[in-house]
Write a structure and sequence with these properties.
Elements (H helix, E strand, L loop, with lengths): L5 E11 L2 E11 L6 E11 L9 E6 L7 E10 L4 H11 L1
Length: 94
């Protein structure tokens, strides 16, 4: 296994060509108030697999591909509900 960072998140935008925006959420306990705090961050990732909005994906760190894109979609962990039909149509066309 290599030393690249891997994160899991949900695709929130797939409007760009071969690029998706992935929202990675994390929860941690506040050190003073002990309340669970949820935060999130958005990453732009290169997508050759054809992920759609709502899909849960695993992204891996890579060399800089563009000014803001430094991640690549490694795998689609879970498809969003309703996207199964779109994927089946795309595979039938290919």
């Amino acid at each position: 296994m290599n030393k690249r960072r891997r994160l899991t998140g949900v695709v929130i935008s797939d409007k760009m060509d071969k690029t998706v925006v992935v929202r990675v959420s994390r929860a941690f306990r506040h050190p003073l108030y002990k309340k669970v705090v949820r935060s999130h961050k958005k990453y732009k990732a290169h997508d050759e697999l054809g992920a759609h909005v709502g899909d849960q994906v695993r992204i891996v760190e890579s060399r800089p591909i563009s000014k803001t894109k430094h991640w690549v979609v490694e795998a689609i962990v879970r498809r969003a509900r309703g996207n199964e039909d779109v994927v089946a149509e795309q595979e039938a066309e290919a």
